[in-house]
């Protein structure tokens, strides 16, 4: 019977061509949207590498250009911030703090290998503020003050790309000036950009204020005690403004920043899903219409099949089967096309993302086909054979 | 083979009620070749549909091989049609998207336990019987009316049914082709002993069968052996 259906569809390929193409395109759009969603969702469930709850970010913008003066004020502000009993720890960073809309990268090389990596400037207490775990080696500390090199802590993604199997600890990476970075530690994960973003190679570069005399850092991360709210925020800003005078100060919780970033990832996903939904609805209506029309055109065939021994239920199964075969033709084309993405690695996305999306898309197309065929097929099965055979 | 008792068929539409058959009593023994004649609209096709289990009578009993069929379900009726009955129609009812061979094989598709190779063999044998061995790969639209009807007959006989119901099988054909079809049916009846009930408008064709039943306005008006019957007996 299945062979019979394939033969039937194949012989009718000209009239079925449009339907097969529709299913083909519908599948491709579904595959693309699902790939994006699967990619995002999979990222969402991967560890971030830090804990953002109860962490606030204080953004400070001085009103003068005098670095010396600003540095003095900055150190006073930090002193005061550490002094609040509501604050557990603080650390300066540059503007690419977790969930911030800012990026900074740098080229690293080791031997012949060269690669771009995200660079995060952080003070020693950053690991306490963000509750980071070093899995190999150590975090920054006082022992780095005497080092000739710039100590860095790298994430696993960077280690795998740059050093592969080698132990990265103690390895030197040349800087633009004649100095070098030296790897002192490795963290398993650090994914600060957004929960929906894949982990990228990155490294932490140490802010040591006595050494970086001419630099100004405008972002201060504070870990506050659980349950701190607007009240403490107002009190803190008021006191710190008292020290800095004309500076602009702004506090945002990392939770709020996380939500903003999540929204940015979700909005296109939702928009695409809605567009995709309309497209599928369109295809579904088309499919339904064609199937419906086909049945009235195939009255004589239905009557004949009943006459030669098909039960009503067999006619029903035949029509459902035909649509499944039709969908299979479209899907074979679609899968042949879609499979190129994991094979050719067009984007830097794990193959498994494509395979999951592929599986879901195939399943959805078959469901769609069955859904559209259900009612017309029942109608076909209900056709009275004597009526259908009535000479036209 | 088949017996009709007090058959009544009424078509009920919104506006009118048509009595297509009224008080029909018939017995057709195994191996008989019967023709049915009557003016248009007198209920001949309706009669054949009821005999072929494609339609149910409003009242009355249909018996096949002594078994009343009224209590069968759709699946069982389909099974009986598949096993025992072959149909031939005026307008052939071939599936244009299937080759001659695939059209002929159709009834066996609904019969479990027949292998693909066996089916193919039976289809070729059936096509040989109707003289179309050379056209197996053709499609129905590439054939003449007479050839199409021969394909339809091959399809009707592939399952080796005991009963063939033919509704004006020569109605769309000229006299020469009609003659050919008639000869095939006569051979089937004589050689294989297939019971045949044929509706026709052609008196000459009817006279070649053994028995002729005339209908008028849904009722049998005559039922008699033909001269051909007498001739055969001699
Ligand atoms: N589905 C139906 N609904 C209503 N009336 C019908 C239906 N089928 C047939 N009839 C009526 O039943 C009567 C018998 O129809 P039938 O088709 O059996 O005639 P027939 O003898 O085969 O005619 P013809 O020689 O033209 O084929 C006619 O009056 C016809 O109009
Ligand atoms: Mg008729």
UniProtKB/TrEMBL annotation, chain A:
Annotated membrane topology: Multi-pass membrane protein
Transmembrane as UniProt keyword: yes
The keyword Nucleotide-binding is annotated on this UniProt entry: no
Transmembrane residue ranges: 16-39, 269-294, 315-339, 351-375
All copies of domain ABC3 transporter permease C-terminal, residue ranges: 274-385
Predominant place of localization: membrane
Keyword annotations from UniProtKB, A to Z: Cell membrane, Membrane, Transmembrane, Transmembrane helix
Record-annotated MacB-like periplasmic core domain positions: 32-192
Intracellular or extracellular location(s): Cell membrane
InterPro entries to which the protein is assigned, alphabetical: ABC3_permease_C (IPR003838), MacB_PCD (IPR025857), Macrolide_Exporter_MacB (IPR050250)
Pfam entry (one): FtsX
Protein family according to the UniProt entry: Belongs to the ABC-4 integral membrane protein family.
Protein name, as recorded: ABC transporter permease
Automatic annotation (TrEMBL), chain B:
Keywords of the record: ATP-binding, Nucleotide-binding, Translocase, Transport
Alphabetized GO MF terms: ATP binding
Keyword Glycosyltransferase carried by entry: no
PROSITE patterns noted in UniProt: ABC_TRANSPORTER_1, ABC_TRANSPORTER_2
Domain ABC transporter: 2-234
Protein name: ABC transporter ATP-binding protein
One Pfam family linked to the record: ABC_tran
Native source species: Pontibacter amylolyticus
Family the UniProt entry places it in: Belongs to the ABC transporter superfamily.
Presence of keyword Translocase: yes
């Amino acid at each position: 019977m299945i062979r019979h259906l394939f033969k039937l569809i194949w012989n009718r390929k000209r009239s079925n061509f449009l339907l097969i193409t529709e299913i083909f395109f519908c599948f491709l759009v579904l595959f693309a949207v699902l790939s994006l969603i699967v990619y995002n969702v999979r990222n969402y469930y991967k560890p971030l590498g830090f804990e953002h709850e109860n962490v606030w970010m204080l953004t400070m913008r001085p009103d003068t250009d005098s670095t010396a003066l600003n540095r003095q004020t900055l150190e006073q502000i930090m002193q005061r911030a550490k002094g609040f009993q509501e604050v557990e720890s603080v650390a300066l960073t540059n503007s690419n703090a977790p969930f911030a809309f800012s990026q900074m990268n740098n080229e690293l090389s080791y031997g012949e290998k060269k690669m771009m990596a995200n660079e995060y400037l952080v003070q020693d207490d950053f690991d306490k503020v963000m509750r980071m775990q070093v899995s190999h080696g150590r975090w920054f500390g006082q022992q780095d003050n005497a080092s000739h090199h710039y100590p860095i802590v790298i994430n696993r993604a960077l280690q795998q790309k740059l050093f592969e199997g080698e132990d990265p600890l103690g390895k030197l990476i040349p800087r633009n000036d004649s100095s070098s970075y030296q790897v002192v530690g490795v963290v398993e994960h650090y994914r600060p950009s957004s929960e929906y973003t894949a982990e990228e190679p990155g490294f932490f570069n140490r802010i040591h204020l006595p050494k970086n005399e001419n630099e100004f850092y405008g972002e201060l991360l504070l870990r506050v005690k659980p349950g701190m709210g607007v009240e403490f925020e107002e009190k803190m800003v008021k006191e710190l403004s008292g020290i800095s005078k004309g500076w602009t100060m702004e506090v945002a919780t990392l939770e709020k920043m996380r939500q903003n970033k999540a929204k940015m990832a979700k909005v296109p996903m939702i928009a695409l899903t809605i567009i995709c939904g309309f497209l599928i609805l369109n295809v579904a209506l088309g499919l339904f219409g064609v199937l419906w029309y086909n049945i009235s055109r195939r009255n004589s065939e239905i009557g004949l099949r009943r006459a030669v021994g098909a039960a009503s239920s067999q006619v029903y199964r035949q029509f459902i089967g035909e649509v499944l075969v039709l969908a299979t033709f479209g899907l074979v084309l679609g899968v042949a096309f879609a499979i190129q993405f994991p094979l050719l690695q067009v984007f830097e996305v794990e193959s498994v993302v494509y395979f999951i999306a592929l599986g879901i898309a195939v399943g959805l197309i078959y469901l769609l086909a069955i859904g559209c065929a259900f009612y017309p097929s029942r109608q076909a099965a209900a056709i009275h054979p004597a009526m259908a055979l009535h000479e036209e | 083979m088949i017996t009709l008792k007090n058959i009544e068929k009424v078509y009920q539409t919104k506006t009118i009620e048509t009595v297509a058959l009224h008080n029909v009593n018939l017995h057709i023994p195994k191996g008989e070749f019967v023709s049915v004649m009557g003016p248009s609209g007198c209920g001949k096709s309706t009669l054949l549909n009821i005999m072929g289990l494609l339609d149910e009578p409003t009242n009355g009993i249909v018996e096949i091989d002594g078994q009343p069929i009224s209590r069968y379900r759709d699946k069982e009726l389909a099974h009986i049609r598949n096993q025992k009955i072959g149909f031939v129609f005026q307008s052939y009812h071939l599936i244009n998207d299937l080759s001659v061979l695939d059209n002929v094989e159709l009834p066996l598709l609904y019969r479990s336990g027949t292998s693909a190779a066996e089916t193919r063999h039976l289809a070729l044998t059936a096509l040989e019987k109707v003289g179309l061995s050379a056209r197996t790969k053709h499609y129905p639209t590439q054939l003449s009316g007479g050839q199409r009807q021969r394909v339809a007959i091959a399809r009707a006989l592939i399952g080796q049914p005991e009963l063939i119901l033919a509704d004006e099988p020569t109605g769309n054909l000229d006299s020469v082709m009609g003659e050919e079809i008639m000869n095939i049916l006569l051979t089937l009846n004589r050689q294989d002993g297939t019971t045949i009930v044929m509706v026709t408008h052609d008196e000459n064709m009817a006279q070649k069968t053994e028995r002729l039943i005339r209908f008028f306005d849904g009722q049998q008006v005559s039922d008699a052996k033909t001269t051909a019957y007498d001739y055969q007996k001699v």
